[in-house]
Design brief:
- This protein has a single domain, classed as Nuclear Transport Factor 2, Chain: A (Roll).
- The protein is globular.
- β5 and β6 form a beta hairpin.
- 31% of the residues lie in helices and 45% in strands.
Length: 137
């Protein structure tokens, strides 16, 4: 499968909050960096290794958030690297608040699998939700 096809399939699934194609596209030895390379401000931040690590990240993420949609705004694939800008629409479970922000994602692909994932989120948008009392401090 060409990288463009893989990205299209995963992107379409994420629009309806379906993570299965993404999980199926992961290499067994994936390095998953989410929001920041260290845990801290965001519970979903940190670095996770391997499919088991990504399952841990997903479990931590789903404790606080439900995905309403993750919509690709722009995606560029060149050889084995994908960059994408996504609009993320979440529901914060404890307060049922809607949390929306832009997220940039970089994937490195090898043998039709994602071997490296790094996400960069609009933390200012998340801070606005926190300061409005919708998220805990």
């Amino acid at each position: 499968m060409a990288p463009e096809e893989l990205v299209r399939i995963v992107g379409q699934a994420l629009e309806s909050a379906d993570f299965e194609p993404l999980l199926n596209a992961l290499s067994d030895d994936i390095v998953w960096k989410s929001a920041a390379t260290m845990k801290g401000f965001l519970r979903i931040g940190g670095q996770y290794t391997g499919r088991q690590g990504v399952e841990q990240w997903k479990s931590e993420f789903e404790t606080d958030y439900a995905v309403r949609s993750i919509t690709p705004k722009e995606v560029v694939v060149k050889e084995d690297v994908m960059w994408g800008l996504f609009w993320v629409d979440l529901l914060y479970r404890p307060t049922l608040a809607q949390v929306c922000f832009d997220c940039a994602v970089r994937w490195r692909l090898k043998n039709e699998k994602i071997v490296d994932h790094q996400a960069f989120i609009d933390t200012a948008a998340v801070l606005i939700h926190e300061q409005s009392g919708l998220l805990p401090r």
